[in-house]
Amino acid sequence: MKRRPLLFFLIVAIGLFAIATTWLGNRMKDLAEATRALAPREFQGLTVVFVGTGGSHPNPMRRGPAIAVGSDTHVALVDAGRGVAEGLRASGIPTGQPGAVYLSSLLPENTVGLDDLLYAGWLDPRTQPLRVVGPTGTRALVEGILAAQRAGAEGQAEAWGLAPEGIRVEVTEVAAPLDLEQGVLRVRATPLRDGPTPACVYRFERGNASVVAVGAAWDEETLVEAARGARLLIQEAHFAESIELAIEAGASEPERLRREAGWRTPLADAGRRARRAGVRSLALVRLRPPPLFNFQASQPAAEAYSGRVVVPQDGDELEFKP
Q1: Using CB atoms within 10 A of its CB, is residue 151 exposed (0-12), middle (13-18) or buried (19+)?
Q2: What is the rounded distance in angstroms from the CA atom of residue 144 to the CA atom of residue 155?
Q3: What is this structure's pTM?
Q4: Is the CB of residue 55 less than 8 Å from the CB of residue 67?
């Protein structure tokens, strides 16, 4: 009779050991997956990866603004917001793979991850200079980042034997419409006019597939012309009605809320711009406040636009065949 309790405890111990071993094995597998070196990702068509869909305000559910446009092994990155390096890795894109960053404006929400991208990519390792394209003022921004990090970077380069080219940056400022090439990608950079800060809209093309990304609300005419006939328009937007409801409910600093809203595109206007440009799809990002359900953002835009409206989450992808 004494053997039965002993056998029971032995079976329980074996079961617990098996569970612990399985958990430890899975944990080690996850750790290895998170830290292993990534091979450059190859994209079959013109692919948009929503690395970060948040905006100026911290949001644990959404990283800062960063949109990757990939074709073959070429990756262009629109903006470099908070968490861009981690977001790229989560999407299977090595941090050293993006060959260029296209800044939609110099708002901090678009640039705070630029130094992280530059230095993380260098360790990946990147062996070619990173190209940074942006509105007037981009050169001063980049020079400031490099100056701030110079002492540490030089010491690290010497100690670790890193390629000095990988920490260099080639800057292009967009003061007038500019046609660029990045591998198989053709890029049209166009400055937006009459805004409170310099900004640009970018159109990426391969064959007959085209994607347009903008991070500013002003100069609708230039935006519509730049997006004419594109397969996808990526547009920032906000809930104009919710701002007023918050103010009516007694929100603090109502004047600041209204000023912030003036820098963003109301959802209905985003839909109207997409309709005017004749784009096939509209993606809404940097939503303020973030929607609880996607239809809360897509429905107001769809009232002015009959095409496809998507509200992407971080890591979502859209592919367009050339």
Answers
A1: exposed
A2: 18
A3: 0.88
A4: no
Convert the pLDDT of each residue in 99-152 to its tens digit: 999 999 999 999 999 999 999 999 988 889 999 999 999 999 999 999 999 988
* Contact between residue 282 and residue 247 where contact means Cβ atoms under 8 Å apart: no
Buried b (16+ CB within 10 A) or exposed e, 236-271: bbbbbebbeeebeeeeeeeeebeeebebbbbbbbbb
- CB 107, CB 197: distance < 8 Å: yes
- Tally the domains of the chain: 1
Is 3 contained in some domain? Answer: no
In the chain, the amino acid numbered 145 is I
Q: Show the domain range for 139.
A: 40-320
The rounded distance, in Å, linking the Cα atoms of 68 and 90 is 12
d(CA 121, CA 301): 37
Answer whether the bond into residue 125 is a cis peptide, omega within 30°: yes
Alpha-carbon distance values, 21 to 29, 31, 130, 286 (Å): 12, 15, 44, 43
Q: Count CB neighbours of 77 within 10 A.
A: 27
86 token code pair: 């981690």
Say if 24 falls within a structural domain: no
- Pairing of the two strands 209-214 and 232-238: parallel
Q: How far apart are alpha carbons 35 and 146 in whole angstroms? A: 27
